[in-house]
Amino acid sequence: MGTVWRNWAGTAVATPARIVRPGTVAEIAAAVKSAGSEGLCVRALGSGHSFTAISSCDGAVALDLSGFTGIEAADAGTGVVTVRSGTSLRSLNASLAALGLAMANLGDIDAQTLAGALATGTHGTGAALGGLATQVLGMSLVLADGSVVSCSAAERPSLFAAARVGLGALGVVTSVTLQCVPAFSLVADESPEPIESVLSSFSSLAATNDHFEFYWFPYGRKALVKRNNRSVTAGPVPGAMPAWRRYWEFEVMENTVFGALCRAGRTVPRLIPSLGRLTSAGLSRRSYTAPSYEVFVTPRRVRFVESEYAVPRESVLDVLGELRRAVPRLSHPVMFPVEVRVAAADDIWLSTAYGRDSAYVAIHQYVGLPYQEYFSLFESIAAAAGGRPHWGKMHTLDAGRLADRYPRFPDFLAVRAEVDPEGRFLNPYLKRVLGVAAG
Asked: What is the 3-state secondary structure (H, E, C) of 182-209?
């Protein structure tokens, strides 16, 4: 006892009964069986980038899989790659690039482990593309009894449908088989544009770009629009961003300078609206070409808390309109931007995009600033549109309110009860969102 675990944002803290660092599947299975014999729960630790307590391991056996990493098998011809679950996305991207391969879509943070990113439903952006879980062909897991099983669309298909976004509630994922694509570059075009223009063109922007998103700073008049495409139809292709400018843009401006502004706003909150307008007015345009994973990923060194909801794509403008009208009336001003992305419908039971083309609205607040009023307001707006919260980002919903938003929620619960009848892999967060009685 005594080792304290905390997540990246500092919103979850736990003291596990012990931490085990397995290096093989057999050691993972042994740790699960040992915990079971002692009546202890088990949680696999990722990188701690979830803002909820989904990874909380208080009083549990915590499995640190940082030594269980790397590619197990790869076929560069077919793009099928099997990866150990503790591998970080950053490491995976580098390994895939060496094989001439890439993930078809990624989020903007690469610090997560592959298993952790899948468990929480991590996604990128692209109207015709799904989240990371849609790239999964198969998985292997250690179940509560210590057995090792595999699942895919052909083998244990119900477990596969549940485990691709499994919340860590079904077992310990040991390996993931991915369908990768040939390595590709993206032409990145990032420009500040009037927020009214962005909203009026939202459907067109989403439909005509491979990857589209925008950031809107509350109190500002402009949004930073990101259009990332695999090819251009005409005109010259921009070159790589010079190293000095990459450092200036991403390290100095987006982290050092923005971090200083955030600290100033936390010290003197009444300055925040002015700082937001200043940040919005200071956005600059940049166009460059780089390997896909370098374009997808953005360094995040300024810490924040976050809530994100997936809403039907046709509802997003109404959600944003309500949010924009409400933000100026908050008691505590908002320092961080709102991020908006899109994704295609999928068939994964607990995916936030299950059965519907989706838009994602993510709100943030700088660490140390009040956020509860803002997040509660946003949650009520998103709920009115049938929003589904990101499993790894802050929300207050329980199983009673989640069940009617996921048509296959009962099926997930049935699979969970079958593979883990004693709740070996549950913690308080999972008991709340899955409706499992505490005990």
From this structure: ECCEEEEEEEEEEHHHHHHCHHHHHHHC
Residue type at 324 in one-letter notation? R
Residues with Cβ within 8 Å of 92's Cβ and at least 6 positions away in sequence, in order, are 71, 83, 103, 114
406-430 burial: b if 16+ Cβ within 10 Å, else e: bebbeebbebbeebbeebbbbbebb
pLDDT band of residue 248 (cuts 50, 70, 90) is confident
Per-residue model confidence (pLDDT) at position 249: 86
CA distance linking residue 315 with residue 142, whole number of Å: 40
Q: What percent of the chain has pLDDT over 70?
A: 98
**Residue 235's pLDDT is what?**
59
What SS3 class is residue 179? strand
User: With contact defined as beta carbons under 8 Å apart, do 272 and 280 qualify?
Assistant: no
Give the pLDDT band (50/70/90) at residue 281: confident
Please tell me the CATH superfamily of domain 185-389, with its number: FAD-linked oxidases, C-terminal domain (3.40.462.10)
Percent of the chain exceeding pLDDT 90 equals 89
Give the CATH number of domain 71-183: 3.30.465.10
Mean pLDDT of the region 319-324: 97
> What pLDDT is recorded for position 241?
85
Is the CB of residue 219 less than 8 Å from the CB of residue 335?
Answer: no
pLDDT of amino acid 232: 56
- Helical H runs in 182-291? 195-200, 202-208, 243-246, 258-267, 272-281
Pick the CATH number of 5-64 from 2.60.120.10, 3.10.20.30, 3.40.50.2300, 3.30.43.10: 3.30.43.10
All structural domains of the chain with their residue ranges: 5-64, 71-183, 185-389
Q: What integer is the mean pLDDT of 246-251?
A: 86
- The SS3 assignment for 40 reads coil
- Bridge partner residues of 388 (DSSP): 310
